[in-house]
Specification:
heterodimer, A: alpha+beta, Arc Repressor Mutant, subunit A, 21% strand, B: Arc Repressor Mutant, subunit A, 7-stranded antiparallel β-sheet, 4-stranded mixed β-sheet, 11 helices, 41% helix, globular
């Protein structure tokens, strides 16, 4: 097993460092591995928009552990790892993280892989996303999730982009432009996906499926019987197994109204239904809905429906 | 007939020039064509790096004439991708002068500020277009220096051969549609537009550089034959909701024998006629899905599939994924925040 440790954020320096560790030379921003280490190469590409990318295309002869140590200044690193051929131990993946925390990447012996590494400064990312209407949402999310790690499987669209980057290598005149376009497409795809995920997280994270079941139980207990006073918030919170404040918040989110407004709305709807059935007197309706007097009931009814119970 | 003469070297100014003519005001950089002139809209913006872009989807009631006067002391190039549909294809009024480009065919065209350009869009004809203005310096920034030099030298040699146009194909068309249709709904709108516009430029440059190679692929096709093939292509991909024209019908339109048509079509577009049709159809479906306003089933119908299973299978054949998988960017396997997966420990 070979271990390569580094905390460099400049890819030209990093390539030199890797070359030194493996006792090979850098020629034209490219290194070829020695047979004992791997077959294949690593190369540095400087793109017109100022980004540097490091591309690996290799099959390690033994496990190689890349160990990024933390840096003081914050950078963001993308890694698109494509595993070629069928392999059970390694997965093609996209990794996005910041450099203020360390991480490891193991290139498994005998596994042919292509890696596209991109490093961007905080400023660069801010400039890129700052131009977008929803860019702040993404930037805030990234800032909140420090240390930031995002890991997902490489899908076919990413694979196509990587393949096109590899295919163009023969066309020296247009290579940088084509690679840059693919790199920007990958970032667009990545951040679009991340943005959508942030939306889902905000919608769903606060109510779990189990909480939904308990909230429904609370709601049923609340509107079960109007003839006696409704359960108080402490009783309900015990039933829901959550704090009163959390219960109030989630209840409103799920049913659209605060607890007791929901109770009152249902109580009045029931009153209207009873009156419409023409089977009950005003006194009976007031009694069964827990009102001490017909006049109290009438007042609330007018407030809810802007008409007197007698007019139904 | 409305006539517009201008010398603007960027499209933000150009849109303002148009706005003055229409007596209208652009809102957020977008100019809507007033009803008394026609319909549609145009938007101008500048990419990081300085390339100026115009995106327009317009049709006018009357013939419309534009003339950009040459500005030889300010040198720049103009690349336009035009999709022309509808209308009679001929001017309602008098025939234009011979040096006027009559917009009746979809085309990818490269021009420059060295020559005056005249464009006539016939009445009721819909033009969807993306235009780029770029200078040599922009190319030097994007390509290696000698590629930019080669481009400029190549521009003049191909101009002399009248070979600086490119036929619009599936790749151009899907980019064009993405740029025109989706420009308001994407969460990262600027990045989306910038990337597509640069992909359009990339596509043109790749073809352009290839044309500069000594062996010319389509060399044996006559100019007139090329023009007829362009007509065939436009007809072939005009409507996917109905079955495509047969080879016999296409042969009649192009005044070629079916055998010659099939052979020449493949030379020019790189694929046999119906494979090309199918590819365009799938790209169209993908573009429609990406608008995120139609259900998969609707899209299937719009591109002529009655059986959703067949549609899904064809889509997968082209793109390797099912239509339903198009938006599954990083699903349950994704991990946000917290600790990295074991793989990284």
């Amino acid at each position: 097993m070979i271990k390569i440790e580094y905390n460099l954020t400049n890819y030209a320096d990093l390539l030199k460092h890797v070359a030194n560790m493996l006792h090979v030379n850098v020629t034209d921003d490219c290194i070829f591995f020695s047979e004992a280490v791997a077959t294949g190469f690593a190369r540095l590409l400087k793109l017109p928009n100022g980004l540097e990318i490091l591309m690996y295309d290799f099959t390690p002869a033994q496990d190689i552990v890349f160990h990024r140590k933390k840096t003081v200044k914050e950078f963001f690193s993308f890694r698109f790892d494509e595993i070629l051929g069928n392999n059970e131990t390694a997965k093609s993946s996209v990794f996005f993280g910041n450099t203020t925390h360390e991480w490891y990447n193991v290139a498994t012996a005998g596994v042919h892989q292509r890696n596209i590494n991109i490093i961007v400064s905080k400023d660069w990312l801010q400039k890129l996303l700052g131009r977008e209407e929803h860019g702040d949402t993404i930037l805030n999310f990234i800032a909140l999730k420090t240390p930031m790690y995002h890991y997902e499987l490489l899908d076919i669209e990413y694979r196509r982009l990587i393949q096109e980057m590899t295919d163009v290598a023969m066309n020296k005149q247009l290579e940088c432009f084509v690679v840059q376009n693919r790199v920007m497409m990958m970032m667009e795809r990545f951040f679009t996906g991340l943005y959508k995920k942030i939306g889902e997280v905000n919608l769903n994270i606060k109510i779990s499926a189990e909480e939904i079941v308990r909230l429904k139980q609370v709601e049923q207990a609340l509107v079960a019987d109007f003839s006696s006073p409704p359960p108080n918030i402490n009783q309900l919170s015990r039933l829901a197994a959550m704090s009163p404040s959390k219960l109030k918040e989630l209840f409103k989110k799920m049913f659209g109204l605060p607890l007791y407004q929901h109770y009152q709305k249902n109580r009045m709807n029931k009153a209207k239904a009873m009156l419409l059935s023409k089977k009950y007197s005003l006194q009976q309706v007031a009694d069964s809905l827990g009102y001490g007097s017909v006049s109290d009931f009438s007042k609330t009814f007018v407030k809810a429906f802007e008409q007197l119970p007698e007019e139904i | 007939m409305p006539e517009l003469y201008y010398t603007d070297n960027n499209y933000v100014d150009f849109v303002n020039t148009c706005a003055r003519m229409f007596n209208a005001k652009p809102a957020n950089g977008c100019l809507t064509v007033p009803e008394n002139y026609g319909s549609g809209h145009m938007v101008a913006f500048t990419l990081t790096g300085g390339i100026s872009v115009l995106v327009a989807d317009v049709a006018f009631k009357d013939d419309f004439f534009w003339q950009r006067n040459a500005t030889p002391n300010h040198q720049f190039f103009i690349l336009q991708v035009n999709e022309i549909t509808g209308g009679k294809g001929v001017p309602a009024q008098k025939q234009p002068s011979p040096d006027t480009h009559l917009a009746q065919q979809s085309v990818v065209q490269l021009g420059s500020s060295f020559t005056t350009s005249k464009l006539l869009l016939p009445a009721q004809t819909r033009m969807r277009t993306v235009k780029l203005i770029f200078e040599k310096q922009h190319l030097i920034n994007l390509l290696v220096q000698d590629a930019a030099e080669k481009f400029v030298a190549g521009y003049f040699s191909l101009l002399a051969q009248k070979n600086n146009n490119d036929a619009i194909d599936a790749g151009y068309r899907s980019l064009l549609y993405e740029i025109i249709v989706q420009n308001s709904t994407h969460p990262l709108k600027n990045m989306f537009l910038q990337n597509r516009v640069l992909l359009l430029l990339e596509r043109f440059l790749l073809n352009f550089m290839e044309k500069l190679q000594p062996v010319e692929k389509a060399a044996h096709l006559k100019e007139e034959e090329i023009s007829r093939l362009i007509k065939v292509e436009a007809l072939l991909v005009s409507d996917f909701a109905v079955p495509p024209p047969t080879i016999e019908q296409l042969a009649k339109i192009s005044a070629m024998s079916p055998t010659k048509l099939k052979k020449d079509f493949k030379t020019m577009y790189g694929l046999p006629v119906y494979e090309y049709y199918q590819k365009n159809r799938m790209y169209r479906a993908k573009a429609l899905l990406q608008e995120e306003i139609y259900a998969i089933k609707q899209v299937g119908t719009m591109v002529g599939y009655t059986n959703l299973g067949h549609f899904a299978a064809s889509f997968k054949k082209e793109f390797g994924i099912l239509p339903s998988e198009l938006f599954n960017v990083g699903r349950a396997d994704a991990l946000v925040g917290g600790r990295p997966p074991a793989d990284f420990e």
